[in-house]
Every structure is written in structure tokens, then in C-alpha cells.
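FIELD: query
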Amino acid sequence: MGIWIGGALLVGWLTTIVVSINNEPPGGAPNLNALEEHTVTALHSQDADEFQLLFAEDSVADDYAANYLDRLGKTAANNSRGAVKKSADATFIVVDGPGTCTAWQVVETEKRWYLDGTPPVLNTLCSNSEKRR
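FIELD: result
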């Protein structure tokens, strides 16, 4: 009798895990423009969880988004603008605002677009945005 109860609990636990994994929102965005929009929206709303989901897996630490938003501050986050920029053979999402500018390279994986947390080597990305919000 105890084995049946233990087995039933194990099956229930595994079912819960599988269902929760299948119901997780997808990370990234379906296209480049949506990624730029989601990035700016997450910054404006100070939504660290949503912002974290925009990064490619293992490209940033688990608390990167929360730490970034804390450092950025509410005023700068609310006044940030996004831009899609191309430099050499790479595409970037550049977010700038009062006293700050950050560029993330964009990567496409399995038809989803993500921010890559590896900082760009180029320092020219924070001037003359091609697309402003």
C-alpha cells in the first residue's frame, strides 16, 4: 500500500514539473523589432523577470536584470530609448537614457531573438542611433 502511495506521489510530482516547464513563457522575442520593444518596455516597467527572459541562456547571471535595473535607477529606466543598430556583421539593441547607454548584441536561436549579455568591444554604438523610440 505504501509503495502505491509513494508511486502516485512521484507520478504527480513529475507531472507537475512537466506541466510547469511547458507553461513557462518563451524567452526572447519573435523578431528583432519585438525584442527592442520588449527591452524598452521591461526597462520602463522595471520588470526584472521579463527583462531577464530577453537574454540568451547562460549569457548573463540569474540576477543580471535585477542588478542592472537597480544600477540604472527608476528615472533613467523610465526615460530610456531603444535603437536597433548594425555594426560590422553584428546587430545590437542599444538602450540609452539620461547618463547611461548600454548595447547588447542580438542572437537568433530556434527562431527566437535574444540579447547576448557579452559586452561589445566597440564603443561607437552609443552615438547616432538609427532608430529612436
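FIELD: remark
Strands lie at 81-87, 90-97, 100-109, 112-116.
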